[in-house]
Design brief:
mainly alpha, Fumarase C, Chain B, domain 1, three-stranded antiparallel sheet, two-stranded parallel ribbon, elongated, Fumarase C, Chain A, domain 2, about 500 residues, 9 strands, single chain
């Protein structure tokens, strides 16, 4: 089990991603603990002056003009959690919940939230014991914080919600009793600090970044294999050609494919053929993959900024001032996930077109649907139909969520981000594209196996073909292809394909 220290040092998504998969010990450094303690002292001092502080001694949203009596401040926070726990749908997965808890602790550690050190340490203890709040996936519009989902996190902390521990869903109060922990008793501002913030949206976004990261390199490998299997030209990927375009990711993609095809006997076998140009899905791979990689990098930058930001309201400052903010608004995450959705969707869309390229057959070398006995056998006809279905689904899912808004809280919260949905549908697209790339790899590899066996693949792709042979992906007859597709999906997800390539070639 690794260790992650919460400090004022910036963290990247790569630092956080490991807890998506497994429990890691999390600690505060001494500076973070002091910051939390100081912000609490400032808040308590402000309350003694009878200052009006939103969400601390006032109602919430449209009820902000209602002043709350001092004896009711704790009850105000408790009522907030109970009333806002309106999430629906299946629970978020354990990895995402761990990240939510970590991000909440990180924003508190900046010293602008005013929560007690006891509350922070309680959430920390839950995280370190893998006591994970059951948080429904639906109910947030990504503004005023991810209110409903985070209210379920808070509900578990006060002993009125459910948690999962070692895979078992159980009432949180029962778990706390077993472990000798008393449920949290919320005091001034602690309820609103628990539910304000972008932590749910950002946690799902981190998973989307993590899940999509290897797809861009995998898509280069899949394209190279299709270029080889489809008897297409290597010279269109010559880096000297692509230096004329000033997109570094286009150039790196061209480098990758050009190098992956080096010394391919299959490519050399048709060097003097009569074909002048290949279709766009082949010829423009660097342009499309490069553009998508650029958008991915933009999304990463935005998510990394949010990871290290304060996401709360109101905010407490060391000079004693308490100021209102809109830092709970997740428009940045929503737009980041929208652009990532487009980027990943386009990778899948052009992959589908490369698969379609094979379906009509290639000259007199590859029969229709890549079947050895077309008619008697259907080959990869329906494998392509599956990719068409997935690519088409992605077109709808890629419609930006961030351009949507809906007024809530009787018009007080009148412009929202829809970031949680933007991130969730991005995950759906990523899963679809992983499947599309798996099908492309299966088709291209089997074309080589069936029709080009007299020639060797490039050294790099030969190693990949050996891996596919070991995994029983290569076949000369019709079989239930879904089983093979699932194997290739697994090879992509656990990065076995990229690891195989990286043994002999460093991808850019």
């Amino acid at each position: 089990m690794g260790t992650l220290v919460i400090s004022d040092k910036s963290k990247l998504w790569e630092d956080i991603a490991p807890i998506l998969k497994s429990l890691h010990e999390v600690k505060f450094d001494s500076k973070s603990l002091k910051s939390i303690e100081n912000s609490r002292k400032i808040l308590e001092s402000a309350l003694k002056t009878n200052s009006v502080i939103y969400g601390v001694n006032t109602g919430f949203g449209k009820l902000n003009n209602v002043k709350i009596k001092s004896q009711d401040l704790a009850k105000l926070q408790l009522n907030l959690i109970r009333s806002h726990a309106c999430g629906l749908g299946k629970p978020l997965d354990d990895g995402i919940v761990r990240v939510i808890m970590l991000l909440k602790l990180m924003t508190w550690s900046k010293g602008h939230s005013g929560v007690s050190i006891e509350l922070a340490n309680f959430l920390l203890e839950m995280l370190n014991n893998d006591i994970l709040p059951v948080i429904p996936e639906k109910g947030s519009v990504g503004a005023s914080g991810d209110l409903a989902p985070l209210a379920h996190l808070a509900l578990s902390m006060i002993g009125e919600g459910k948690v999962t521990i070692r895979g078992e869903k159980i009432d949180s109060k029962r778990v706390f009793n077993k472990l000798g922990m008393d449920p949290v008793k919320l005091s001034a501002k602690e309820g609103i600090s628990l539910i304000n913030g972008t932590q749910v949206s950002t946690a799902i976004a981190i998973k989307a970044i993590h899940e999509s990261n290897n797809l861009f390199y995998t898509s280069d490998v899949a394209a190279a294999l299709s270029v080889e299997a489809g008897l297409c030209a290597r010279d269109i990927f010559d880096p000297e050609v692509h230096k004329l375009k000033k997109n570094k990711n286009q150039l790196s993609t061209a480098h990758n494919i050009y190098n992956l095809l080096e010394n391919s006997e299959i490519v050399m076998s048709h060097i003097n053929c009569n074909k002048v140009q290949d279709p766009y899905s082949i010829r423009c791979v660097p342009h499309v993959h490069g553009a998508s990689k650029t958008l991915f990098q933009s999304a990463v930058e935005i998510v990394n900024e949010e990871i290290n930001s304060v996401s709360d309201n109101p905010l407490i400052f060391n000079n004693g001032e308490i100021k209102n903010s809109g830092h709970f608004h997740a428009e940045n995450i929503s737009q980041a996930m929208d652009i990532l959705s487009i980027a990943v969707s386009e990778i899948g869309a052009i992959s589908e077109k490369r698969i379609n390229y094979f379906m009509n057959g290639v000259e007199d070398k590859i029969p229709q649907f890549c079947a050895l006995n077309p008619g008697l056998e259907s080959g990869f006809m329906l494998a392509h139909v599956t990719t068409a279905a997935l690519a088409s689904e992605n077109k709808t899912l890629s419609h930006p969520a961030s351009v949507d808004s809906i007024s809530t809280s009787a018009g007080m919260e009148d412009f929202v981000s829809m970031a949680p949905w933007s991130a969730k549908k991005c995950l759906k697209i990523i899963n679809n594209v992983r499947s599309i790339l798996a099908i492309e790899l299966m088709v291209a590899a089997n074309v080589n196996f069936r029709f080009h066996s007299n020639y060797n693949s490039s050294p790099h792709l030969s190693n990949l073909m050996k891996l596919f042979q070991e995994q029983d992906i290569l076949t000369k007859k019709d079989v239930p292809f879904h089983e093979i597709i699932e194997v290739v999906i697994s090879l992509i997800k656990n990065e076995k394909i990229l690891q195989n390539i990286k043994k002999t070639l460093k991808l850019k």
